[in-house]
Design a protein that fits this description.
mainly alpha; Serine Threonine Protein Phosphatase 5, Tetratricopeptide repeat; 214 residues
Length: 214
């Protein structure tokens, strides 16, 4: 897998922002089944903060960009979504060297794995618990496998996006074990988790953001 540069990540993030902005009402509808119905609104606020962090970032330094995004998201109102996303981005930044404009394929994998490990320190949720982890973990696993096979960057993130989509779909078969939804028990069966759906959309954005890569 070829190197990913700062501008590549900006395109990836911006495409994810566009997709969440387009789909935020659907996310709130999903959340209304088992939660407060505000997940889409929360994600919309989060995306606006990511966009602001990108606009205000003056240097092409991936570590500081992800760190800035992480700190911005930690303060998002609306349940655990902001803190979880913020922790993930801060964890991603911790794996990167200072003042780097690009990352290799193996470094990209380490970056996402570092974000996942940071999340695992603050939540007990794992695959099968009907949370964002159901999409995130499979996506990172697919990314790692693709990079190890020598896939191109577009192929690797396509595989990650497809794995995230499958993971989100699988949440229809599981019972919620975290958040307000856990109080509904088996009533959550048959419904897709909004957090996993959001993560799926983010990875779809990462993939689509690379399609017109220069």
């Amino acid at each position: 897998m070829e190197n990913l540069h700062f501008d590549d990540f900006v395109r990836m993030l911006n495409r994810s922002i566009e997709i969440i902005e387009r789909e935020h009402k659907q996310l709130s509808e999903l959340d209304s089944i088992s939660g407060d119905g505000d997940h889409g609104t929360t994600m919309l606020r989060a995306m606006k903060l990511i966009s602001k962090a990108i606009r205000e970032h003056e240097k092409k330094d991936l570590k500081s960009l992800f760190n800035s995004i992480g700190w911005s998201l930690l303060g998002v109102d609306g349940g655990a979504t902001g803190p979880l996303l913020g922790t993930m981005f801060k964890g991603m930044s911790e794996s990167l060297e200072d003042a780097r404009e690009f990352t290799s394929g193996s470094e990209v994998v380490k970056m996402f794995e570092s974000g996942l490990r940071s999340l695992e320190k603050i939540t007990k949720a794992r695959v099968g618990d009907k949370t964002m982890m159901d999409a995130l973990e499979p996506a990172i696993h697919a990314l790692r496998e693709s990079v190890n096979r020598g896939s191109s960057v577009v192929e690797a993130f396509k595989a990650a996006a497809e794995a995230a989509e499958r993971g989100a779909e699988e949440t229809t078969k599981s019972v919620a074990r975290f958040g307000r939804a856990k109080n509904l028990g088996e009533k959550t069966l048959g419904h897709k988790d909004p957090g996993a759906t959001s993560m799926m959309l983010i990875f779809r954005g990462f993939y689509e953001g690379l399609l017109n890569r220069g």
